[in-house]
């Protein structure tokens, strides 16, 4: 039965063979089948070579996992080239033959293998059965004196946590509650990843999700307790299934310094009789783990290295430093017997000297660190007195440093240094290969991360959304928490604009803390700089809270205040760095990244954050420019709209205006209603050719010119003739304009008299009380085309109950496919508006236009409805 599968296709080029090997290795490692990886990789390499080199076609590699083993198929696209086999179906047996060597390996290493042909492909497959692991196997260690036994508390607590298929906690025992201070109801049903502090760089190595899927895993990480502090633990994960076949993971956890309770004892080399080989003391611990971790599991390899080094020299602590990507500094990558959280990724500058790395190239022994202050800064304040350090070198190039320390002075001599150097030389190549693999994965992950970040940042011009994206991209991928400060101008103080923490419950406390701390200086110097103010403030706040709690007494202690303060201090107490946000040669803000208590950033993460800050700064500045220009545009557009419409005695007036295009408030359509003199009002509705800012400019010219000319005493035809001349004077910027202009005089008998000029505009429609609809004017030439126009005014009288409807062509030219609303369609809608108020008439026309087509309107639209109500009688007008 097939339980898992993975497939990939490789191009017919030489480098595909190495890529295929890596694919199979990663797949089997992920499935937890490390015992058969070497054989599978060798066979895959031979078969893919046959496909891409000899057959010259692409190779399809398929990995299938069954209950008993793993089957791997390699297919090429050249079935005509037969596999050299004997009639019995076995591979050619002579190893000196030119062909068939890969099949010789299949016959020698695989449990079963075969060849299958189709019309388009040739499949060569092999199967490797999993080695049997008898139940009940035990391991034993020698009897040790009491002073050599591991140190543990009086009662060792073993947390038993069960994780369901989805990664959520389904069982939480009493020891787990004692260790981490969570009651079962607080954690059951939540993912373990919400509580685990995994010592893992994003994009490299094995993550906790992958570890929970392996059949067995063992190692160190941390669990965040209820007080916010990380409890270092040593864990053993075992994948099981119940009687119904439902898989789950059982996790056993103890405090990290009590790891001997769970840690699998190392196997020692033995001779054919099974007895430990003789020599100088116990077997070399480095024999145990070389090759046992996964080839790309750098963290596991380094952790085992320091533990074996400590055991080999009977030390109290050990640490290992690796060169950074640019090889200018060394950073702590693994330690034991030291505060690992504080030391991890701490950077140590390489001493200058005649060689490339100076004195770091040679072994060194310090008999008493108190006599030479600062000789090994990494061990300051740890209580270690003597230390021996040796370099890790590959082909003469320093790639790291390994050290073992003891609390007693004078513990180490040159003899121990030579032993440690011999062991370091044996593992240096494996460590360097794993380091380079991690760096390559980190580079690829960084490129993918930056590409995705650039796409997200380019997808918005909203300032607040850009700030949120900046924080969400850094937490938790690059940091535990993030704060973004913005700077309005050089004279302004930085302002805290956005705060995010991976634990949402701590965001408010973190924001409150940062608001009490003076913001970082907006220095344009590129790169990350350490900012100690948040950590110092958090430490002081935690200290004051603790003292106040002790003074109050246990019975009067506040229920949540001290705990929240301590949790915030724990969350902010690690390394905090500030990166400037520089755009267009100006500091526009700072990106602040933080780690929890006593943790450090690794150099590659800081370089990735610096790349992100440059992209984020440009995106934030673009959002600022867009916001400013949008505000200016909207202000200018609002200036083109008429002010609040006046109340016309005895006449209801309603206007609906819609500008086409997102963010536009004014387009090519416009309207106006204004008093000319006592008892007389001017109204207009027009349409400038086109949409957008160019059309809006002519809109402003027309609306202001109409008001000015009408109030100067010109009649309708004279007003439009002079407006026509003004439009033509614009030259290349001029646009033709359709315009309906009229003057309105409410009458004492309840009617209204209008004089209307329709210059190329859709004709106004008059709705009578009996439901009939008719044009209220005749068409005349539009404006902005000819210099000499002869226009005339037409008089219209609106009786009580009559409606005059004026629209732009965005209404009449509304389309759905080949259909168009048109003048007739508008008239049909207007006939249904008898007895409605002017507002109701305009609203019904708008609904009819919107429902005519499913797509949004693409043209500006203006609707002006005027109605003389029936209730107005003679004598009511002033």
UniProtKB/TrEMBL annotation:
Domain of life: Bacteria
Coiled-coil intervals: none
Location of the region described as Disordered in the Swiss-Prot/TrEMBL record: 261-290
Keyword Hydrolase appears in the UniProt entry: yes
Keyword set, alphabetical order: Hydrolase
Residue ranges constituting the PAS domain according to the UniProt record: 160-190
SMART domains assigned: GAF, PP2C_SIG
Ranges annotated as biased composition (Polar residues): 269-278
Cited Pfam families: GAF, GAF_3, HATPase_c_2, PAS, SpoIIE
PANTHER family reported for this sequence: STAGE II SPORULATION PROTEIN E (PTHR43156:SF2), STAGE II SPORULATION PROTEIN E-RELATED (PTHR43156)
Name the UniProt record assigns to this protein: SpoIIE family protein phosphatase
Organism encoding this protein: Streptomyces olivaceiscleroticus
Source taxonomy: Bacteria, Bacillati, Actinomycetota, Actinomycetes, Kitasatosporales
């Amino acid at each position: 039965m097939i339980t898992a599968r993975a497939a990939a296709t490789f191009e017919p080029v030489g480098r595909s063979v190495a890529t295929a090997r890596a694919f199979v290795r990663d797949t089997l490692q992920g499935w937890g089948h490390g015992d058969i990886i070497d054989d599978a990789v060798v066979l895959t390499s031979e078969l893919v070579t046959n496909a891409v080199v000899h057959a010259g076609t692409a190779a399809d590699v398929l990995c299938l996992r069954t209950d008993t083993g793993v089957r791997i198929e390699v297919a090429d696209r050249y079935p005509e080239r037969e596999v050299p086999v004997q009639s019995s179906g076995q591979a050619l047996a002579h190893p000196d033959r030119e062909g068939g060597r890969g099949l010789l390996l299949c016959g020698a290493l695989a449990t079963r293998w075969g060849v299958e042909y189709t019309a388009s492909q040739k499949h060569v497959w092999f199967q490797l059965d999993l080695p049997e692991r008898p139940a009940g196997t035990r391991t034993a260690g020698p009897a040790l004196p009491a002073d050599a036994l591991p140190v543990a508390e009086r009662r060792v607590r073993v947390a038993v946590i069960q994780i369901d298929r989805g990664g959520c906690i389904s069982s939480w025992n009493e020891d787990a509650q004692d260790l981490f201070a969570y009651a079962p109801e607080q954690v059951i049903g939540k993912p373990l990843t919400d509580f685990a502090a995994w010592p893992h760089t994003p994009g490299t190595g094995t993550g906790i999700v992958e570890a929970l899927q392996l059949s067995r895993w063992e190692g160190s990480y941390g669990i965040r307790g209820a007080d916010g502090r990380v409890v270092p633990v040593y864990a053993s994960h075992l994948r099981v299934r119940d009687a119904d076949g439902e898989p789950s993971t059982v996790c056993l956890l103890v405090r990290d310094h009590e790891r001997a309770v769970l840690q699998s004892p190392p196997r020692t080399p033995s001779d054919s009789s099974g007895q430990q080989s003789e020599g100088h003391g116990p077997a070399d611990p480095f024999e145990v783990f070389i090759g046992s971790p996964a080839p790309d599991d750098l963290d596991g390899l380094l952790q085992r290295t320091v533990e074996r080094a400590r055991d080999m020299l009977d030390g109290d602590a050990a640490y290992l430093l690796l060169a950074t990507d640019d090889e200018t500094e060394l950073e702590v990558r693994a330690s034991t017997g030291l505060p690992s959280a504080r030391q991890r990724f701490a950077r140590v500058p390489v001493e200058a000297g005649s060689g490339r790395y100076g004195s770091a190239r040679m072994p060194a022994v310090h008999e008493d660190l108190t006599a030479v202050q600062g000789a090994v800064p990494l061990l300051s304040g740890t209580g270690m007195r003597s230390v021996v350090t040796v370099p890790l070198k590959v082909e003469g190039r320093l790639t790291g440093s390994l050290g073992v320390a003891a609390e007693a002075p004078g513990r180490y001599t040159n003899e121990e240094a030579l032993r440690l150097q011999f062991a370091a030389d044996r593992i240096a190549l494996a460590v360097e290969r794993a380091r380079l693999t991690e760096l390559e994965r980190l580079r690829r992950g960084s490129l993918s991360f930056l590409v995705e970040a650039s796409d997200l940042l380019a997808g918005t011009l909203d300032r607040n959304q850009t700030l949120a994206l900046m924080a969400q991209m850094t937490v938790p991928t690059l940091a535990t928490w993030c704060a973004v400060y913005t700077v309005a101008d050089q004279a302004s103080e930085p302002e805290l604009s956005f705060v995010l923490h991976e634990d949402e419950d701590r965001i408010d406390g973190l924001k409150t803390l940062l608001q009490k701390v003076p913001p970082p200086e907006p220095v344009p110097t590129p790169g990350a700089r350490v900012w100690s103010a948040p950590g110092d403030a958090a430490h002081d706040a935690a200290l004051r809270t603790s003292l106040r709690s002790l003074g109050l007494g246990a019975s009067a202690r506040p229920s949540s205040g001290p705990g929240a303060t301590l949790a915030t201090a724990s969350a902010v107490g690690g390394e905090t760095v500030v990166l400037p946000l520089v755009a267009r040669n100006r500091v526009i803000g700072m990106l602040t990244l933080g780690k929890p208590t006593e943790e450090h950033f690794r150099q590659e993460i800081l370089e990735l954050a610096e790349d992100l800050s440059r992209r984020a700064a440009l995106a934030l500045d673009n959002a600022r420019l867009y916001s400013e220009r949008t505000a200016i545009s909207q202000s200018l557009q609002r200036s083109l709209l008429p002010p609040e419409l006046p109340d016309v005695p005895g006449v209801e007036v309603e206007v609906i205006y819609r500008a086409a295009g997102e963010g536009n408030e004014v387009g090519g359509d416009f309207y106006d209603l204004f008093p000319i003199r006592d008892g007389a009002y001017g109204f207009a509705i027009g349409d400038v050719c086109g949409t957008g800012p160019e059309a809006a400019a002519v809109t402003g010219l027309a609306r202001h010119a109409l008001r000015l000319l009408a109030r100067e005493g010109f009649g309708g035809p004279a007003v439009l003739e002079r407006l026509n001349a003004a439009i033509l004077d614009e030259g290349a910027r001029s646009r033709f304009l359709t315009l309906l202009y009229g003057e309105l005089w409410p009458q004492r008998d309840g009617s209204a008299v209008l004089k209307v000029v329709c210059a190329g505009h859709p004709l106004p429609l008059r709705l009578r009380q009996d439901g009939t609809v008719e044009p209220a004017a005749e068409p005349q030439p539009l404006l902005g085309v000819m210099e000499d126009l002869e226009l005339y005014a037409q008089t219209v009288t609106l009786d009580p109950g009559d409606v005059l409807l004026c629209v732009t062509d965005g209404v009449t030219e509304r389309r759905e496919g080949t259909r168009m609303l048109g003048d007739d369609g508008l008239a049909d809608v207007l006939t249904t508006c008898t007895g409605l108020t002017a507002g109701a008439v305009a609203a019904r026309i708008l609904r009819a236009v919107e429902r005519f087509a499913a797509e949004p309107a693409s043209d500006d639209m203006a609707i002006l409805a005027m109605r003389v109500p029936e209730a107005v009688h003679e004598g009511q007008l002033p």
